[in-house]
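Chapter review. Work through the record for O-antigen ligase domain-containing protein before attempting the end-of-chapter questions.
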Amino acid sequence: MSVASFISYTYYNPLPTNMLFELMLLVSLLLLAKKMHASAWLVVAGCFLYITYTFAIAYFHLVHLQDYLLAYKSFIYMMILAFFSGKCLFTKKQVLTLFNALLWIFLCKYIIWLVFSEIKRPGVFVENNFEIMTMLFISLAVWSLEKKLTTVQWVLLTLIIFMSGSRSGVVSYFAMIALLSIHSFNFKTFLKLFPIGMVGIGVIAVLVSRLSGGDVSAIDRVVFAQGFLFAIEDWGWLNFLFGSTPLTALPESVCDRLVFYESLFSAKDPSVCYSVILHSYIMRQVFDHGVFGLFIVFFIINHLMKISLVPSRARKCVLAILFLNGMSVSSINSVYAVVGLVVILTTFYPHRYAFEKTRLTLQRKAVLDSQ
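Structure tokens for O-antigen ligase domain-containing protein:
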């Protein structure tokens, strides 16, 4: 799919990448639906019950299936991720090969795109707000293998991030570097602050360049935030805690202001819009599921990473990236987040080898003792 993207520079990829990635996940899922961690089954059961409950309410209110899936896709994805948790699918060599290949493919495609395309937001698979998140997650899997990236990998990744022009991408990258670099405050901390400061300046430069000559109000995400605040102005504390009734439409005045995004209006009634039009996963999640629902999503993702023995700092980076990406776009509601998380969950880290060896030894001992 990545090689196919070099065919065109007016659209990102000639292949239906979203559908292909989702198909890959489903096919892999058929091979993994066994020997799951007990708490992973609890995640599957909990998500399934919640989906069943909300779907029944949506069906009762005659909500279109497409509108429902857009709002609750993240819970379906978490069920899928639960099946990958605790599995070892990728060796160190495979992850390194994948990451290095993607670095060069992304770099070449972004450079060629910026030279020949009139659209100044390059992409390999899709709009780079999404695929940059995937690259960051794979880089975290690589970092978790040896607690570092090589200088070449850092340089290439930095070039890709800033060439993307993605606000959420550069902010997430800045947060990742900060969390990976600063874990104690001493003299070395101050030495690490210089490159982080340089990245911070780059972040500000990208944010300013995206204003297109206007002020902060020219940023579309500010308009979405204003619509969100208007939609919740009459909420009580129970609404803030648990969200609105499943698939509650946004106020008509908010929809009228966002009419430019007509493709995101209801599949059933083009005059109605739901929280998906707000773009930001964080705002969508709070509107549909409340602060408690948002907390549960991040709690589950962190728990699944714990099952897979993902290092603590890498877990913090993943959660920070998901949150920061979710401030702008789809976060865990995107298949590109799920693909990156699958790599993180299923990489065979060195410390997992010792754990698996101990576990198998105990299992064999238990079998022998029972005979």
